[in-house]
Design brief:
Layout lengths: L6 H9 L5 E8 L5 H12 L6 E3 L9 E3 L8 E2 L8 H9 L11 E7 L5 E8 L5 H12 L16 H43 L21 E7 H10 L4 H16 L8 E8 L11 E8 L9 H16 L3 H5 L8 H6 L4 E9 L2 E9 L7 H14 L4 E2 L7 E4 L4 E7 L1
């Protein structure tokens, strides 16, 4: 089994903090079994997330997976009122995670002063995607330790690392050549498209601005709502769609409200498709399927989005993703160019737990006001467009758990 990083994973690593984190949340109205939580934590330390990324000594080389030298610690926070849970979750999501030096993930529990507790698990996207994170959590909960033994960090002498990574680069040369050809063709196509667009309209929207200060850390606004699952499903069916297409329609309407639309008013959605196989060692085993939809009719008819999604999935199986063709260029790109790839974003995700549906959004728009309050209002209004009743807060009758890996769907607006 090769320890060389997949090119998608190398891309996430080079994005650094901008690669983002995943956060899983459990809320209890009863005391948490501390001993059980400690066992869960120990199995996570011995599970599929027990690895680090070691850089290649070559500036253009492929990085590798290695065993971690450090150990994680389980955080038991000082009790707080339940109404402080959102703020605490924000603090947890902003804990620095590092796939190279560690920690790559963090597990913490917050006891509530009125009884019960909340648990947060955060992990860098450089170590896993949603499905991989779900597998890691399930395996740890079942007491299963992963059997992969990665090489120890620093176990390769420098001369050996240089030789092996140079050979790997030589093996990558055919892919690099294809990527250069594809990049040149894409550049020519983009230039033709811009010329056509300028001749067709003089009122094109400006391209999104880059985030000022490439090394500046930005706290991204988030918003979360709960809905009744039966109401959610009934609304999707009444509009001629499914749970997934209702989420896509909601994402499209939210994109329209925050101004992430093309000159013609359309919205581009990127829907991840899981490609993880048995014994897959990739951190991010997904590919993106793109659709372009009009957000206006989504509140009354989801059939357009449903048809567009179906056709995109068929096309995905038949036509290779052009973006993957370009990935061999990633190790060759200067870091300053990698940082310039990070502009604004809008992510909408959903999970189903029991008879509740959870919808959350994360957004950042350069040169625009960005706050949790504003985003909550935008999401609430978008839900209202679909006549959906939603509520905020983490109250639960007995036990509620929400994990990104249980998501019905995940839509990224690009």
């Amino acid at each position: 089994m090769s320890s060389v990083l997949d090119l998608v994973d190398q891309t996430f690593f080079r994005l650094g903090q901008a690669a983002g984190v995943g956060q899983c949340v459990w809320v209890y109205n009863r005391p948490v079994d501390i001993d059980g939580l400690r066992r869960f934590h120990q199995h996570l330390e011995r599970g599929r997330l027990a690895r680090r990324i070691e850089r290649s000594p070559l500036p253009f080389g492929r990085h590798r997976w290695v065993s971690p030298r450090d150990r994680h610690h389980l955080e038991i926070a000082t009790p707080r009122p339940r109404e402080d849970f959102d703020a605490w979750l924000g603090e947890q999501a902003n804990i620095p995670l590092d796939a190279e030096h560690g920690p790559g993930w963090h597990l913490a529990m917050l006891p509530f002063t009125d009884g019960g507790a909340g648990v947060s698990f955060v992990v860098t996207h450089c170590l896993t995607d949603g499905i991989g994170g779900c597998l890691a959590l399930v395996e740890a909960a079942c007491g299963y330790d992963h059997t992969i033994n990665w090489p120890a960090a620093g176990s390769r002498p420098r001369w050996r690392a240089l030789r092996e990574d140079a050979r790997q680069t030589a093996r990558d040369i055919p892919g690099i050549r294809r990527a250069l050809v594809a990049a040149a063709a894409a550049a020519r196509s983009a230039r033709r498209h811009r010329r056509t667009a300028r001749s067709a309209s003089s009122a094109l929207s400006n391209p999104p601005a880059l985030i000022a200060g490439a090394d500046e850390l930005v706290t991204l606004p988030t918003a979360a709502f709960f809905l009744d699952a039966d109401e959610w499903d009934a609304r999707a069916q009444s509009l001629g769609g499914t749970s997934n297409t209702l989420l896509a329609g909601l994402a499209a309407r939210l994109a329209q409200r925050v101004g992430r639309v093309a000159a013609d008013g359309s919205v581009a959605l990127a829907i991840p498709v899981n490609e993880r196989t048995a014994d897959d060692t990739r951190a991010n085993a997904v590919t993106m399927v793109d659709i372009t939809v009009s957000p206006a009719p989504a509140t009354t008819d989801l059939r357009e989005i449903r048809d567009a999604t179906k056709q995109a999935l068929i096309r995905h199986r038949e036509v290779p993703d052009e973006r993957r063709t370009l990935l061999p260029l990633v190790p060759l790109l200067p870091q300053r160019l990698i940082k310039r790839m990070v502009g604004g974003l809008l992510v909408v995700q959903s999970a189903r737990v029991g008879r509740q549906v959870f919808v959350s959004a994360l957004a950042y728009q350069p040169d625009h006001p960005n706050s949790n309050g504003e985003l909550r209002q935008q999401v609430s209004s978008a839900l209202g467009d679909f006549s959906l009743t939603a509520w905020a807060g983490w109250g639960c009758p007995e036990l509620a758990s929400v994990t990104a890996a249980q998501a019905d769907s995940y839509n990224s607006i690009t």
